[in-house]
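sorry to bug you again but im stuck and you know this stuff better than me. theres a chain ive been looking at and ive put its sequence and its fold in token form underneath. id like you to explain what the token line says about the fold, in plain words if possible. anything you notice is useful, everything is just below.
___
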Amino acid sequence: MRTRTVGMTTMWTVTGSPVGDLRIVAQGGMITAIEFSPFLAPPSATAPVGDRADDDPLLRSAVDQLAAYFARDLKEFELPLAPRGSDFQQRVWAQLRGIGYGETASYGEVARRLGMTTVASRAVGLANGRNPIPVVIPCHRVIGANGALTGYAGGLERKQLLLELEQDALF
């Protein structure tokens, strides 16, 4: 995903978190990516091309909301999001946002919510793995049909930590 678009300024900031540093990327007044460290540097296809803008109001809001989430004080993010992906990926990511804080769903359940059979679980998993805005679009809440933690672009340790954080906050 290249973050440079003609006529739109790309900005980014970095914030610390219990799952490591996170780089938040915004373009055109929308959050377009949250990346786990270690970060890729330009000219990689996914590295942001733009200026670091720690004081930008949108990026500040994202940093503040992520801090509140990790402090267990925020269960729903209120950020303008513009993840880039195919129509199918967009549909999957919309379904992920419907999985509530502290809840999980299997890849097959997400497929069924999309009106597909569980045969589409693999396609759902691939779309889940390409989610460019993890944590805020909660791809960590999707697990295997048997309840196992399967695949996570940020690594299974991060997925487990995020799920435990949400579970602990409920009790």
Q: What stands out?
A: Strands lie at 10-15, 22-27, 30-36, 51-52, 105-106, 142-143. The mean pLDDT is 89. The longest strand covers residues 30-36.
